[in-house]
Design brief:
mainly alpha, 275 residues, EcsC, EcsC protein family protein, 11 helices
Length: 275
């Protein structure tokens, strides 16, 4: 895979969002959401989204402190050293390896993350209320972690405040509806282009907003479908509920990891051109 091929793939991938036209249902939904939040007291709305953002910040910090994350980090470095013996720190990944090599290593992280999501979704479909209750927080945690690992692969330290905010912004953009992704992509690209400080994030630190709420609503519908088909057993197992849970979680992680991969590829190529 050459640089030109990756650039071409990036361009084609981005075109689907730049040219996307929302349908009538999406426009009605947007209008309904906006009207609903206009009727909400501004102070209450601000507190609601602030609590959501705080949860994501704490989740990111929690993941950075786990031994599982440390092991994954060492695994990435070990694979990187197969390509270059000069790699000692995470930052060396982007200096010593080509975008093709970084993409290969990141694809391993993506595949692992999708398998975990598929298995977790299947357990949610087969399990009881406990699994259903923790499904969404667990899915968000797994997808934030997947983005962290892709970012690490491309040589960005996730425990720096700047990289933490960028990875959470990537997560936010990746989980937005298709019609809102192009604008979110442009914001991300502008942020890394106009980077003022290597460690401090100077942009807007708000993550969640009205547009993002479509993702939790989809989760609610998924849970409803799982409950509807839970009693339809085949050989004692609710296979339809298991399939709904597994496919839904796999699809979300595929969407998130693909967006993250494209962003970090683009960022890497942009930085190399800048050099």
């Amino acid at each position: 895979m050459s640089h030109q091929r990756i650039e071409s793939e990036l361009k084609n991938w981005l075109e689907q969002y730049l040219k996307y036209q929302p349908n009538d249902f999406e426009m009605v939904y947007d209008h309904w959401i906006q009207q609903s939040f206009l009727q909400m007291e501004p102070r209450v709305k601000k507190a609601f989204f602030s609590k959501l953002d705080t949860w994501f910040f704490h989740t990111h910090a929690f993941l950075q402190g786990t031994s599982y994350q440390y092991e994954a980090r060492e695994r990435i470095l070990t694979v990187g050293r197969i390509f270059s013996s000069r790699i000692e720190r995470m930052e060396d990944m982007k200096k010593e390896l080509t975008v093709e090599q970084l993409t290969y290593i990141a694809e391993q992280q993506m595949a692992r993350g999708r398998i975990y999501s598929f298995a977790q979704g299947g357990l949610t479909g087969a399990g009881g209320w406990l699994f259903l209750g923790i499904d969404y927080p667990l899915m968000m945690l797994m997808n934030i972690r997947a983005i962290q690992l892709i970012g690490l692969t491309f040589g960005h330290e996730m425990n720096h405040p700047y990289e933490m905010m960028i990875s959470l912004k990537v997560f936010h953009a990746a989980t937005l509806p298709k019609r809102l992704k192009a604008a979110a992509w442009r914001e991300l690209v502008e942020e890394v282009k106009d980077k003022e400080h290597p460690y401090i994030f100077a942009g807007d630190d708000q993550l969640t907003d009205e547009g993002w709420l479509e993702q939790p609503m989809k989760q609610g519908f998924k849970s409803l479908f799982i409950l509807m088909f839970r009693k339809k057993l085949v050989q004692g197992l609710p296979f339809i509920s298991i399939a709904i849970g597994a496919y839904s979680n796999y699809h979300l992680t595929k969407q998130v990891t693909e967006f993250a991969m494209k962003f970090y590829q683009y960022r890497h190529l942009m930085e190399k051109k800048g050099e």
